[in-house]
């Protein structure tokens, strides 16, 4: 029988590699540090509409990047930041004329 070889992934490296090499968006610097959810949504929209690396429509690309950031931060994301970013999802939906989630 053959041996199973598992590549070792160092903590903190895989998400950086995903952001660098995937068909992700080229984000404006500091977009996730903005206080205003509408400003976050507008920045993500601009990035999604300018990007030539995305594989899907701008709305889905922008929402995916926002979810990616929230999920990667996990429990280390302060509650206030999480509220701003969750509100940015609603703002993003509004910018694209999509219904709000309940």
TrEMBL record:
Organism superkingdom: Bacteria
Alphabetized InterPro entries for the sequence: Phage_RSL1_Orf186 (IPR021513)
Short name of one Pfam family: DUF3175
Protein name in UniProt: DUF3175 domain-containing protein
Species name: Microbulbifer thermotolerans
